[in-house]
Specification:
Distance between the termini: 74 Å
Number of helices: 11
Order of helices and strands: HHHHHHHHHHEHE
Helix content: 40-55%
Strand order of the largest sheet: 1-2
Largest sheet: 2 strands, antiparallel
Structural class: mainly alpha
Amino acid sequence: MADSNSSDDVEVDQSQLNQNRFKHKGQKVIEEITKDAQRHRIESKQAWDSISFGSGNIIKQGTQWKWINQFNACRTAVFGQSLATPPNGQTILRGLTIALTKIDISQYPGKTGPSYGYVQFGYKTLVDYCEFTYDDFKLETSASKRIEKWFQDRLRSGELVKGVWNPTIPIGFNTALRMNYALFTDAMDNGVRNWDIVVMQMLSLSLLCATGGRAGDVGVSAGYEQTMCLQWKDVELYWDSEPKSGASMADLYGSLVCRIKLRFLKNMK
């Protein structure tokens, strides 16, 4: 015989209970949203429409759009396609094949072909761009395998080359000294309107050497705001010891120390 006190046959709408329990939460914001509904409708649509493709710093984005613009030119001029429709994997591979013949490697003597990493970057950029732009774009598995094989074949034939193309070479003391000496000598021989400019150039070069930083860590990089650089508020000068009696400045105060804070490093702008 079933237990008359059992609640197994009673159905409770838990979602309705929770809705009633928390219905007052966020009421103030809801009223503000309702009041400014028209403005929020426009601003939210503008936020969506204002998002453009591109990632990384200005230089990287410029390279991405170089690949995209050239690919779109191939689609319209060579393949006769409309940019309103998404491309397929075959179109991307054909675009890469054309781009490979247009890359100038004359500044890299001894290289038999363009950089493998550079063309791989272009391939990834095109796929990301198509996924960003077209809702119904999807790179077919078969096309992905063909493109992978295409890269392998080009590496084997020497049409693409792996390796470091622009090795990092830190500026040593002698190099920095000669560069500063050249700046100073040029100003002395040819004249200068303002010696402050020469001193600033020499100081910037010296700061790069002293901090071991990149040019964009100290100076203003192209495409960024003028304040995104090393500023005087980031530089602290102080003596490393308390004043004491002596004949020279070094004896009086010790050594002058400079503490520099780099705020705009790579990926921090």
